[in-house]
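User: Predict the complex with adenosine-5'-triphosphate.
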Amino acid sequence: MSVQLAVRVEQLVRRYEAGGQHVTALAGVDAAFARGTFTAVMGPSGSGKSTLLQTAAGLDRPTSGRAWIGGTELSKLSETALTRLRRSKVGFVFQAFNLVDALTVEENITLPMRLSGTRPDRRWVAEVVERVGMGDRLHHRPAQLSGGQQQRVAIARALAMRPEVVFADEPTGALDGTTAAEVLALLRSIVDEQQQTIIMVTHDPLAASYADRVLVLADGRIVTDLPQPGVSRIAAELASLHPKEARVSAGVRA
Ligand SMILES: Nc1ncnc2c1ncn2[C@@H]1O[C@H](COP(=O)(O)OP(=O)(O)OP(=O)(O)O)[C@@H](O)[C@H]1O
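Assistant: Here is the predicted structure with adenosine-5'-triphosphate placed in the model:
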């Protein structure tokens, strides 16, 4: 039986022009992500990790190349169809949380379902809220929460609809070690128990060790594709690319 692909990108190129200068954020990335797998995307700052996530998720259009979510090629979709596809199949956790200030925690978490006209699965929503430790803050507004708490709300919002694919950009960057471990265990369990697919950008080798696979980007290209590496192997790979960055990521002050 062939492996079902949740996400695929082919020869993805993304160039930006800013202040008269051209930057090649992605220089031709090919990658396939099987359904029910958890992939960590790593690499030095500026290597193209966020751009890969954004273009693979259909939040940004590539300069050239193609991206698929499930069997659907994103470049063939109108903006409306793309928005519909994202709302029904994709969950996002952004670096900047992107919570709606005017809504409560509970309303933020169920917003994607209301937007896509799906009835929330109350039991699952309650479980997700509990597992990110936000059960006692449901009626707060984002401005009344710490950065780590806002990130946990963003994670609950991404998982509440049981999307087929979750794209997460540094989901544990703002969390303390204990909360980060709980969130990573939750991400791991939705892959193992519900066959959801996660693609997560992280700088942290410990966070990446929860994944089934680690892709390392450098200068807009995949330079390493490791199946189930341990923390020390990941740290060594990063150190070989960019020694200072790897030391800081591993929590060691340079
Ligand atoms: N909107 C934009 N306009 C111009 N250049 C951009 C834009 N977004 C990203 N870039 C550039 O593209 C390159 C890749 O950026 P990207 O954010 O994908 O890297 P990253 O690996 O996620 O970095 P970090 O780890 O610092 O978040 C960088 O050189 C960045 O400056």
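Residues 245-254 have pLDDT under 50 and may be disordered.
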